[in-house]
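[agent] plan:
  1. take the single chain provided in the ticket
  2. run structure prediction with default settings
  3. attach structure tokens to the ticket
  4. add a short note for the reviewer (M.T.)
[agent] executing step 1
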Amino acid sequence: LEIDGKMVTGLAGQTVFNVAWDNAIHIPRLCHVGGLSDAGACRLCLVEIEGQRKLQAACLTPVEEGMVVRTASERLREHRKLIVELLFAERNHICAVCVSNGDCELQDLATELGIDHVRLRYQFPKLSVDTTHERFGLDQNRCILCTRCVRVCDEVEGAHTWDVAGRGTKSVIIADLGEPWGSSDTCTDCGKCVQVCPTGALFEKGAGVGEMR
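[agent] step 2 finished; step 3 output follows
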């Protein structure tokens, strides 16, 4: 198949996203983590496929013989800029006081896309911070609902402590059936969810950016 004018080879069952990255073609993403199932939650990996009118999520689209894919058109760049601006406007991302300032994938992506302001009205929701766990904390204000934590807890640790409750912009990450994280009977205190979080939503208490790296 062809990706951005480069002829590449993939195996049956592989996705456009994986074949592209295997061939050093960078497609932005916030919800994908190698080794976990793909959820198509962030929609930042949408690509143009010749012969198809709609944009397709690269992480969920299997490769096909003769496929022609574009990953970096101006249309896609504008699409990704809008998604990142929507993420900033939906929650309370105050980079200057965030525990992950300087080591945040959302921040890095905004810089890569040249976003220096948000054209949308900020929602400023009143969201909670759960610091009941002895070692970790959860700040809903910085969550982008990528569900990385849900998937790593379920598929790697096997605990399935995390899940998503609510609908639309009211959706939040919850521990078990909505109890404080520190009261969870299923959490194994492994910290995998903190490791895969792309923002400062899940953090280790008392750890600076350098220590987290």
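[agent] step 4 note for reviewer: The chain is about 25% helix and 15% strand.
[agent] ticket updated
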